[in-house]
Amino acid sequence: MTAAAPPDGAGPVRDEDAFDIERVAGWLRENATDATGLAGIPTVGQFGGGASNLTYLLRYAASPTFPSGRDLVLRRPPVGTKAKGAHDMRREHDLQAALAPAFPLVPRMVAYCQDEAILGSDFYVMERVEGLILRRDIPPELGLSADATRRLCVTAIDTLADLHAVDVDAAGLSALGRGPGYVARQVAGWSERYRRARTPDVPDAETVMAWLAGHQPPDRGTALIHNDFRFDNLVLDPAEPTRIVGVLDWELATVGDPLMDLGSALAYWVQADDDPVMRRLRRQPTHAPGMLTRAEVVEHYADRAGLEVSTEQWRFYEVFGLFRLAVIAQQIHFRFFHGQTTNPAFAEFGAAVAYLDHRSRSVLGLPEPGEDPERTLNVG
Questions:
Q1: Which residues pair with 56 in a beta bridge?
Q2: Which helix (H) or strand (E) holds 76?
Q3: What phi, psi does 137 have (nearest 5°)?
Q4: Are 15-127 and 140-376 in the same CATH fold?
Q5: Of 96, 154, 196, 281, which is least packed with CB atoms within 10 Å of its CB?
Q6: Contact at 8 Å (CB) between 24 and 43?
Q7: Residue stretches of the chain with pLDDT short of 70
Q8: What is the largest CA-CA distance in the chain?
């Protein structure tokens, strides 16, 4: 049972993702760390972003303590998920709860439920972080100048560096790490994922995988890394949009090499002078006047983090980021190719995989096999 009118910022709940909100609301009143303002049944909406865990907005009516009402966010695995290791709600909840004292930009946790009888799976609930989230373009009504956009960009990079500076031992998060060898594990793991998910219509990527395997640097440090650090996971202050008030989506966070995190983040970083295919793949406003280029991001991050990273050294992290993104896209394309999803948004993911392999080869100066990806991906 769900509400007919969804809360602001969320759409209607899809039928296959619906749940008994009265049962969840009752459980929350009994188990929330702070149950103030949780009387009654909230209206419910579903956020449409992301391709993994499901995210809902619960909006409670106004009360004396919360005159504007109270908004909570509920996170759960996809319906029907059996492999809990891939959608570990307990891990995601506990990581943010432990991190909050050292990195206050994480949302405040409200409750974790492991009783699958309540909703059909385990889930957790957190306070909603109020603010703006940038998508493909900066809304013109924000009136951000190039100078203001640059300040926002620098603040985002500094936020990532601040996260990497958290003392994981003091925060009680060291158990997330598996010790030295993070780079090697990532190269081997993502290569295996690509081979398992490959379909006949995409490159074999063996040349890029072989290069990564043969040019692995030693770990450059051990830090808490986000692993999905993008503008659409950052919440901005509406009154001061150059200020970040929240960092969302900690599903992939772990302890590992901070430069691998930066490389993964910059795979999504499309700048104004990129080729037409790369510009078509853009999902965040990193092309806007004032945004730093990828090279400037690396330079600023290295200065902030106290690291020395040469252009040649950075090449490994750049190619790894592009390859990792290709694997993520291919895992989705695999489902589309085999008819497991008919979402039209996934129709060009195979061409995107081919392009990312092409771009990786270009960075490495390797010969290009087969057809030019720009001919297979619509750039109009």
A1: 46, 74
A2: strand 70-76
A3: -135, 155
A4: no
A5: 196
A6: no
A7: 1-8, 49-52, 80-87, 369-380
A8: 67
Residues β-bridged to residue 73: 57, 126
- pLDDT given for residue 346 in this prediction: 83
Q: What are phi and psi of 346, to 5 degrees?
A: -95, 5
pLDDT at 82: 47
Return the domain boundaries, the chain: 15-127, 140-376
The confidence score (pLDDT) of residue 17 equals 87
- Are 51 and 77 in contact by the 8 Å Cβ rule? The answer is no
Question: Could you please report the per-residue DSSP string of 298-338?
Answer: HHHHHHHHT----HHHHHHHHHHHHHHHHHHHHHHHHHHHT
Give the chain's length.
380
Which string of b and e fits 259-280 if b means at least 16 CB within 10 Å? bbbbbbbbbbbbbeebeebbeb
The residue with tokens 């924000």 is 142
15-127 topology per CATH: Phosphorylase Kinase; domain 1 (3.30.200)
For residue 343, the model assigns a pLDDT of 74
Which residue's entry shows tokens 């090449």?
315
CATH says 140-376 is which class?
alpha beta
Helix 182-197 and helix 258-266: axis angle, to 10°?
40
